[in-house]
């Protein structure tokens, strides 16, 4: 099991375990993390799993592919570290990754 840390806008953290090969979205949905949705079921066709990567993790996570970059155009508020949780697959290299959850509706 690999540790994933979800940090809410108020600073509260949730630490959950995931399995290598799952996405960050899978972990969030399995544990009911508020603020991370999966309306499209992880198909990269919505932005309900929009999140921010902690800056320490930016170079450890593969860059977004074209379809994710396109969908991120609709993420609000978009930042340089914006990602879709459905597109980040957990590996041992990502043990302890910190994901920040955007403030709801903005």
Short synopsis of the structure:
Helices cover 13% and strands 22% of the residues. It is α+β, with helices and mostly antiparallel strands and 106 residues long. Strands 2-1-5-3-4 form a five-stranded mixed beta sheet.
Describe this structure in words.
This protein has 106 residues and is an alpha+beta fold. The chain contains 2 helices and 5 strands; from the N terminus they run ββαβαββ.
Give the SSE layout.
Layout: E1 2-7, E2 13-18, H1 24-30, E3 50-53, H2 66-72, E4 82-84, E5 97-100
Parallel strand pairs: 1-5
Antiparallel strand pairs: 1-2, 3-4, 3-5
Q: What is the 3D form?
A: globular
H/I helix tally: 2
Low-confidence stretches: none
Gap between N and C termini, in Å?
33 Å
Number of strands: 5
- Largest beta sheet: strand ordering: 2-1-5-3-4
Keyword list:
alpha+beta, 5-stranded mixed beta sheet
């Amino acid at each position: 099991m690999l540790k994933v840390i979800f940090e809410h806008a108020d600073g509260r953290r949730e630490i959950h375990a995931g399995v290598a090969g799952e996405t960050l979205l899978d972990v969030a949905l399995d544990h009911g993390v508020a603020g991370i949705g999966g309306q499209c079921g992880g198909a990269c066709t919505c932005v309900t799993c929009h999140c921010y990567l902690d800056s320490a993790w930016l170079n450890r996570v593969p860059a977004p592919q074209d379809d994710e970059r396109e969908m991120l155009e609709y993420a609000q508020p978009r930042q340089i570290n914006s990602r879709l949780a459905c597109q980040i697959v957990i590996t041992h290299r990502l043990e302890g990754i910190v994901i920040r959850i955007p403030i709801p509706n903005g």
